[in-house]
Write a structure and sequence with these properties.
By secondary structure, this protein is of the alpha/beta class. It is built from 19 helices and 21 strands.
Length: 500
């Protein structure tokens, strides 16, 4: 009987970029993922399509799955030979009951590993301009759980905490905020001691309030701060306005959803993150080569019979060269052909194969690509067009009079979005806009969310065909000035600023 294994993985404070490299590697190989409510949506989107994702989320007073039942599930899945990832917000051993779960595994002789995570006790203050230690302000750090049972105040030794004269960080303490502040004051803490509460740190929902400890509960109430949140008490909180950096990024506080093909990363998403946006990448599309594609095989074997080859997407380039290799051909077969690319992204994919596009249209759409090829091609030229089987007919209309072999090379399939409930997030106003780079991405999004009222979706569209698909779904649409990654970024910034 195959023996399974369990990994306790810390997911960090919420930002997908703060999941460790090892944590991501383990997650990508999981058969089963048992995840908590505090795991960020961007990290949930990384759970493999093939893995079973189970929400065992725990928040104060609300348990999706009791600990006893969770323990039984961990044992059952591991005994069935599965690779089980127990995915926890922050670090598994910091108030995450990771030690209790390891006791269970050790008692039952189940192999396990621990992948530490970045704790919100340090990361969240850091992303809000608060260093938890500073040579001139605090030389010690104390992390305390503020969790309490219903109706009970936290059982804390406030006098000892005050005597440390260090930084105090309380996790899970929002329900007991007033009790904690009063306990510290009664134990002798100076009323003007700086303190801060940071809501949903490292995500688009990050919000900070800094006030004297005596005034903090009222300040938090006025600001409408919610959970999850981190409470920081100490002189270092006075540095927040000086050291803040996240709030100064141009897309700070903006959450963008992007659909992408499974197994591919997004340069656009990375640029958005560098500008401060929280990006939720949903692998809702699978790009699948058409099997036993005799038409493509014939075209590859007779490439020297063409004068032009035109690519309408980066996926078309990637799959075409994969199929060339499968048929035992290499780029020497393209000698003498003119190469056209619909845009810079497609041209960049060609560069990976050592090829430079001879033609890139000024407007990145099929109609303009076809018109430019028609203007530069010679009478009698034969053109190969390897692309998706659902490609637009506009390029063919512009190439009338030429011999065009329109060869379906791949198809796009919709994938389940798994643990991320996009419909709920849009209904609760938790996503500011959805960025679409293709009409197929729009269709995949709509199919994956059949219960969503698409009028709630503000769509940033890379081009006119993409916008047309979003319009058809009933979304509020905006189209990039230029159908390129930079054009889409410019559009999203304008949407964030409210200038369109």
């Amino acid at each position: 009987m195959k023996k399974g294994k369990v990994w306790l993985v810390g997911a960090g404070p919420g930002d997908p970029g703060l999941l460790t490299i090892k944590g991501r590697q383990v997650l990508e190989k999981a058969d089963v993922v048992l995840y908590d409510s505090l795991v960020g949506a961007g990290i949930l989107a990384m759970i493999p399509q093939e893995a079973r994702a189970v929400n065992v989320g725990k928040r104060s007073g609300r348990h999706t799955m009791p600990q006893k039942e969770m323990n039984a599930r961990i044992l059952e899945e591991s005994r069935n030979g599965n690779r089980v990832v127990r995915l926890k917000g922050g670090d598994p051993f910091l108030f995450g009951r990771g030690g209790e779960e390891l006791e269970l595994l050790a008692e039952n002789d189940i192999p396990f590993e621990v992948v530490p995570g970045i704790t919100s006790a340090i990361a969240v203050p850091a992303c809000s301009g608060i260093p938890v230690t500073h040579r001139d302000y605090s030389s010690s750090l104390h992390i305390i759980t503020g969790h309490r049972k219903d109706g009970e105040a936290p059982d804390l030794d406030y006098h000892s905490l005050v005597k440390t004269n260090g930084t105090l960080v309380f996790l899970m303490g929002m329900a007991a905020l007033s009790d904690i502040c009063r306990g510290l004051l009664d134990a002798g803490m100076q009323p003007d001691t700086p303190a801060a509460v940071i809501q949903k740190g490292t995500t688009a929902g990050q919000k900070r309030v800094v006030a004297a400890i005596s005034a903090l509960p009222d300040a938090v109430k006025r600001a409408g701060i919610g959970t999850p949140a981190v409470l920081v008490v100490g002189k270092v909180c006075s540095l927040a306005d000086t050291f803040e950096w996240y709030e100064k990024l141009p897309l700070s506080g903006y959450r963008v959803l992007m659909t992408r093909p499974t197994g591919t990363g997004s340069g656009i998403a990375q640029k958005l993150r560098e500008m401060g946006a929280e990006v939720l990448e949903i692998p809702a599309i699978a790009t699948v080569p058409i099997e036993q594609n005799r038409k493509l095989e014939e075209a590859i074997r007779n490439l020297q019979g063409y004068q032009w080859i035109a690519f309408a997407s980066p996926a078309g380039v990637r799959i075409f060269f994969e199929e060339m290799q499968a048929y035992g051909a290499d780029i020497r077969r393209l000698s003498g052909l003119k190469i056209a690319a619909i845009g810079r992204g497609t041209a960049d994919e060609l560069k990976k194969h050592g090829l430079f596009a001879d033609l890139i249209p000024p407007v990145y759409d099929g109609g303009t690509l076809g018109a430019r090829i028609a203007a530069e091609a010679s009478p009698g030229d034969r053109i190969l067009l390897p692309r998706t089987e659902t490609g637009s007919q506009t390029i063919l209309e512009k190439l009338k009079g030429f011999a065009v072999d329109d060869v379906p090379t791949y198809r796009t399939c919709c994938r389940d979005t798994g643990a991320v409930d996009e419909t709920r997030m849009f209904e609760h106003g938790e996503i500011d806009c959805a960025a679409f780079t293709s009409a197929s991405g729009v269709r995949a999004f709509v199919k994956a969310n059949p219960d969503l009222d698409c009028h709630l979706v503000k769509a940033a569209c890379i081009g006119k065909q993409t916008q047309a698909a979003a319009d058809a779904a009933g979304m509020e649409t905006h189209c990039a000035r230029e159908a390129s990654a930079d054009g889409l970024l410019e559009l999203i910034v304008q949407m964030h600023e409210g200038s369109i």
